[in-house]
Amino acid sequence: MTRADAQKAVDTCEGFYVTTQQGSRGWAEYHLSRSLFASGELNESEDIIRHAFSLFGEVNDEWSEGHCYELLGQILMKKKQFAEALQYNQKAWDIKEKLSGLDNMASNLVARGNIYREMGDEERAVKYYKQAAETYQKRNCFKMEKKVLAIIEGKKDTWF
């Protein structure tokens, strides 16, 4: 790949997400928050995702706000704040349902399953994981379907 090709790819990605300064910064903070979450730095991850959410709110980017709600729910789940985690998961669900329909709900179903698993409600968790697997299968996302099935079978924890 040439330097010009790389710059074209970057320009395309920036245009695809959000072209405003707040939106671009919001996505940078979203990904930083995900990284901090993955490394177990939950308080810092929560602070950053809440700020990212406010940046998306400034530009009325509801789709991106939905992603923030979903990640915030996962952070709160790890902090054992289950009622709040489910509230943010539901907010993400409502936005995704409104903007893209039920076919794009699989990651939210997995997140909800994760919350119930952490709460010790394996039966409910598996119910949501199975719904997610079915959704991925309908969309021909077989790699993601396999990941969810591995969670159900206990071969993998969660992907968050």
- Indicate the overall shape: globular
| Poorly predicted runs | none
Structural class computed from helices and strand pairing: mainly alpha
Distance between the termini: 32 Å
Radius of gyration: 16 Å
* Average of pLDDT: 82
Order of helices and strands: HHHHHHHH
Number of strands: 0
Q: Which bin fits the share of residues in helices?
A: over 70%
What fraction strand? under 5%
Q: Note the total helix count.
A: 8
Largest sheet: none
Chart the SSEs and their pairings.
Elements: H1 3-16, H2 21-38, H3 42-58, H4 62-78, H5 82-100, H6 106-118, H7 122-138, H8 142-152
Helix pairs in contact: 2-3, 2-4, 3-4, 4-5, 4-6, 5-6, 6-7, 7-8
Structural commentary:
The chain is globular. It has helices at residues 3-16, 21-38, 42-58, 62-78, 82-100, 106-118, 122-138, 142-152. It contains 8 helices and no strands. The protein has 160 residues and is an all-alpha fold. Helix 4 (62-78) runs antiparallel to helix 5 and helix 7 packs antiparallel against helix 8 (142-152).
